[in-house]
């Protein structure tokens, strides 16, 4: 499953996305939490009237049309797990509820979470397999 910063990199077509695209080409299915989709839409709405916002919105629309992309809904089971997980995160570490919800969604499906966000280090050890594809 891809985290928000991975998709953001792809739709911005920044240098780091050059590390992500070849790896995505090798996977059968690309998971995307509905929470990530909401976070992306929030960001795009903040800049939607700009030329850059229109370009990024078009790039996201293209990404969402990928045949191997599966948007994973946030279920009641995910919500319960996210609540439990949020209360168990390492104290003193920043982890938003949205990130906890993304982690819970990936965890319940046995999915790898692809992210460049170090905040996920606040998760309990061994809870979730995480890889950073933004780094070469």
Keywords:
136 residues; mainly alpha; Rossmann fold; two-stranded parallel ribbon; 51% helix
Succession of helices and strands: HHEHHEHHEE
Whole-number count of domains: 1
**Fourth-level CATH superfamily:** 5'-nuclease
Question: What portion of residues is helical?
Answer: 40-55%
- Tell the overall outline: globular
Number of helices: 6
Strand content: 5-15%
Task: Write a structural description.
With 136 residues, this protein is mainly alpha-helical. The protein has a single domain, classed as Rossmann fold, CATH 3.40.50. It has six helices and four strands. The relative contact order is 0.20.
Explain briefly what this protein structure is:
Helix content is 51%, strand content 9%. With 136 residues, the protein is mainly α.
List the helices and strands and how they pair.
Blueprint: H1 4-12, H2 17-25, E1 30-33, H3 34-46, H4 51-64, E2 69-72, H5 76-88, H6 97-108, E3 113-114, E4 130-131
Parallel strand pairs: 1-2, 3-4
